[in-house]
Write the structure tokens for this entry.
Amino acid sequence: MANKVEILKQEKDGLDVWPDLLRYSKSGFDTITPDDMTRFRWYGVYEQQPKAGHFMMRVKLPGGDVSSAQWRVMGEIACDYGQGIADITTRQNIQYHWLTIETIPQVIQRLSSVGLSTVGACGDITRNICGCPVAGIDPYEIIDARPLIREVTRYFQGNKEFSDLPRKYKISIAGCAHLCHQPQINDVGFTALVRRLNGREEIGFHVRVGGGLSTQPHLGQRLNLFARPEQVPDVARGITEIFRDHGYRERRNHARLKFLVADWGAEKFLEVLTERLGWTPEPAAPDDEPKSRGHDHLGVHSQQQAGLSWIGTVVLGGRLTADKMLAAADIADRYCAGNVRTTNQQNLLFPNIAEEDISDAKRALLDAGFVWDVSPFRRSGVACTGTEFCNLAITETKQRLATIVEYLETRLDWDEELRINVNGCPNACGQHYVGDIGLQGCLAKVGDERVEAYDVCLGGRLGPDAKFTRAIQRKVPATRVGYALENLLVAYRGERTDDDRFSDFVDRHTDEELGAFLGLDNLAMNDPTWMPPPARHTLAGVE
Ligand code: SF4
């Protein structure tokens, strides 16, 4: 039997809700029907919690590549309509809060005046296409994939042949062989490679399908296919048609492409894709993906263009103020040839800075609050929306991430990359399955009270040795999480060897051993008056 969303999509396509949205902007919030409220998602609009008249809105930024004029307008909208804030998401979008039905048409019109769109930012449709934030400027890239991202975006954008997919659908395309664009957890991931055949080198892409997180994470499977750049749009079309026509539609939580791919396997998927394409793709080239786990895109780096550099800056949990956005637009105009880039780690990157401007640009960035030389805890923190605005959330996330980061910074001097991902519920928008440390929001009982808590999950990563986190300790009260992580990291440091990484440490210990390292006794878990003991740890070890 078809589920509720399938029925409402058959009654009216999500893309056809625009005239209704305009009508509701006049007749008011109370007149919106529940079905149209769901269809608003096709225009990137979601009801914000509590359901009392405010909305979130996502703006698609293909590949995270934005002009300063676009960025300025997004900052002005945050100021004028979004109570002075906006968030960078893990799909390189900008997300607003606090919009009202009366103002949404004006916001969309202002975005569209600078070539930005919210169409397809939510709903059962192709979402923002992700890419590498240093595309076109990275000295080591194989090909600048931005033209392909733009072409594939243009094809799917507002295309009613693909506006009723079984579920949300995510594509990622990068022209570099590293896997920073997360092809392993996208429905479709294109990754560039150089094929060496008969003494000739040829640039193309290999293709993964069926990746995704949510409550049942799957890693994408590689197809035995080599796609030349000009074939990428057609391959994307073929895969999307398969999802549209064969994807499961009975249960919402079993409708993503990953379930079809898991059932069919890569071989059958390729057979059906070949029929759809009408041409026979060449087999994949040997796997030459680098063995590194990619880049956090922070700090000052030389570009492929002589004399130019980019600076990647930290936006912890993706939260920006309108003032910071406007300052970033000015800096981009002044030093970056009018360009900024969002990253899938919720950060902001400033490209094209001339050698002679580097000092001034750094000063301007620091003055505006954009930093890069910070602790590893702060560099890689990611947080979803959480109870502040999300209807599905169990816990707050962005402030919790900041609190944990601050706690660890005051307790430990740390020099190794450590990715902390915080989610307000099991849906994994904050990608807790792939963090070194993943925190999944839940509730716990402390004394007689139910309090915010997190399942502490460890050892996730993408890249050549991709793995999802293991849940080590459930229901750790939120105020104890920093302390537990401090204990864990001290235990790791106590046995760390030269080429050890945190993930190696997690891999070599059992769940019970890792649970014991968290150091949470009965008192810490259950006593409402519990406070963390004074810091005992220094860079050199335990005092
Ligand atoms: Fe909301 Fe849960 Fe997604 Fe966080 S992970 S944004 S709480 S649905």
